[in-house]
Amino acid sequence: MLRIAVPNKGSLSGPAMAMLHEAGYQQRKESKELVLVDPVNEVEFFYLRPRDIAIYVSSGRLDIGITGRDLLQDSGAEAEEILQLGFARSTFRYATKPGTATGPQDFGGMTIATSYEGIVAAHLADAGVEASVVHLDGAVETAIELGVAQVIADVVETGTSLRNAGLEVIGEPIMTSEAVVVRRKGAAGDDPKVQQFLRRLQGVLVARSYVMMDYDCRVEHLERAVALTPGLESPTISPLHHEGWVAVRSMVAAKEAQRIMDDLYELGARAILTTAIHACRL
Asked: Per the record's keyword annotation, is Repeat included, yes or no (predicted)?
């Protein structure tokens, strides 16, 4: 069986299990379940702390796992990302009280508090900055107020919690993160079970990003309409009972669907419909 690590809690857990469910895999119904066997798909899921997943995968005990890019890099584990999943996006940045510093070049001799010591230490080393890094679990916004550090480094989504603590974001982003699939470095890249798993997840990503669009179009307008809806290879075109009309079916990007529908209508297309795609293989 393919052995896969899944986040057991936090912002990664729910979306990861939802994606796996959409990909046709069984998922646990109770949060107390630590292991779930899906015999139909020949997969065994292990629900682990997101921060530990890269370490388990790098050990070879598990074949692949879902975690955050930030957690992967912070772990220092011998694992690599092989697929981006498009959820749990965040930016990792420095913050401090106004007037303290403008970026890493000003951090010399300062102390930086973070839950991601590995990432920060590597970033400072790359920048040639000598500063102390103190590891704190959980929220680090109070570290400056309590005198533990002069700067913090943390995941920033909206920045509201930082502003509420009287802090400002400084410098360029340290890194951007999202959920990723990881495997051990040096693992065989052509494992058929792993490739099937990746194809399923890629199918979910495509299904979420596209809709199927159907519409009726006059033959004389067909070339202009097809230019708006080229599809992946090409659209499906079928003659209608009324002479001079054809039916067109094509995949279009979901975020562009409304604009394309407007443009098609202006061309004279009618009966323009969109339907969700629940699964696909490209």
From this structure: no
Question: Are 170 and 102 contacting, i.e. CB atoms less than 8 angstroms apart?
Answer: yes
What is the C-alpha end-to-end distance of the chain, expressed in Å?
A: 25
**Which residues face 2 on adjacent strands?**
43
**Which long-range contacts does 192-195 make (Cβ < 8 Å, 24+ apart)?**
193/2, 193/42, 193/63, 194/2, 194/63, 194/64
Token pair 């890099």 in the structure block, residue: 73
Whether 159 has a pLDDT exceeding 80, the answer reads no
What is the per-residue pLDDT across 257-274, written as a single tens digit (0 to 9) for each?
Answer: 999 999 999 999 999 999
Confidence (pTM): 0.85
CA-based torsion, 220, 222, 223, 225: positive or negative: positive
**Is the pLDDT assigned to residue 66 strictly greater than 80?**
yes
